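Thread: quick sanity check before group meeting

JM: Hey all, I'm pulling together slides for Thursday and realized we never actually wrote out the predicted structure for the chain we discussed last week. Dropping the sequence here so it's in one place. If anyone has concerns about the input, flag it before I start.
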Amino acid sequence: MALQIHNTLTRQKEDFVPRTPGKVAMYVCGPNLYGPCHVGHGFSYIIFDTVKRYLKFRGYEVHHVQNFTDIEDRIMTTAQKESTTIQSLAEKYIARFLDEMDALNVQRADAYPRATAVIPTIIQINQGLIAKGYAYQVQGDVYFRVRKDPDYGKLSNRALDEMEAGARIEVDERKQDPMDFALWKAAKPGEPSWDSPWGKGRPGWHIECSAMNLVENGEQIDLHGGGHDVIFPHHENEIAQSEAYTGKKPFAKYWMHNALVRLSSTPSGEEMHRHIGNTLWLKDALAQHEPDAIRLYLLSTHYRTPVVWTDEDVAATARGLERLRAALKDAVESKSSTETAFAQMANQVREKFIAAMDDDFGTPQAIAVLYDLAREINRARGEGASPDALAPAQATLRELIGVLGLTLKEPESKMLAAAPFIELLIQVRKDLRAAKQYALADKVRDDLAKLGVTLEDGLQGTTWKSS
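JM (edit): ok, ran it. Output follows.
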């Protein structure tokens, strides 16, 4: 069975066939740097990190690009309120974002382009769209002429006339049509600006991603990801301007959009949005829950299904992690024949895992398969199975857990509670070495390593860290 992805563009599952065999050009919309990220952002980036990990697991070479929006209306407003520059604001929230993604074991993208770094490309695209009649300039502003594009609305599956009611429309009587959107905005006093053929100004929000994609991935990409809330107008406008500029070359072959997250304390339909304020910051979630628990909890819901966040459910997920940790306890390198019962079980689990993930990245089903395998390992150990016999199943479990981005590190709170006992064992090891009982000293070190504690010997003595 081939990997199938639900394509927002066609509203159905399709076999995944990238434009270049074996290679995937992937672009995921990054954060707007006017504030910190909440757990809804975390859901999106965990999902697309898992998508990337699975594509690599399936043998694809993935070029992953994620932008940083560092010039936009809300960034300028926030910078003004905080009496700082947009550059300082961006740097602060980029650093916080990367720290939080590292904590959640979200792999770094291959490129993090910034909107302010592609201004020449943005101007180039605007000039091309004007030359083709898709855009027009008015007193230093440039607008995209939506009714020039007969395909406009194909991503959100709405007719143009139906979009006007309730749409996020910039009111401007100079526009030829209310739905026309800004590609370039003339500078206002005190705003950051760049020189252009239309005078000093700055880019509109939507054109930024088209330019960054063009610079990093070229005219066409395989997979474009983002949250459900940016299907319209952001991604709709991104398609329109990109394909108009390139002569109607299909911009992205597959579009993936994750559902949104809301707190259990807020009514249905009120998903997390920073400008509304119904948020749980990632920093606060990470302070309360271990990263693996957050990641596993969010992956336990299919990415197209809305998530209702409750601290109780995340805590319950953390308790479930112990079963996975127990299954990997005392794991040894697998040297067993592929004909053993545990090796056969491992192969069957791998096939079930792949089947689940091939069905539009079915992480809930994939997780269930891993729990089944962990249960069998724990049962067999309880019945006296040897480490060598369990090794093939444990190796497969560890590999597939890694595809989901889980580390299974012991929570810091547990390590801190164990600190006095670790220090005691370090002293015992020191005494054993002084007595020249090196084999026993090494066994203390090796046994601690199996428990996730790494000893480091230095001039100032022995220190330890969780690994």
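AS: nice. The domain at 4-258 is CATH 3.40.50.620 (Rossmann fold). The mean pLDDT is 92.
JM: adding both to the slides.
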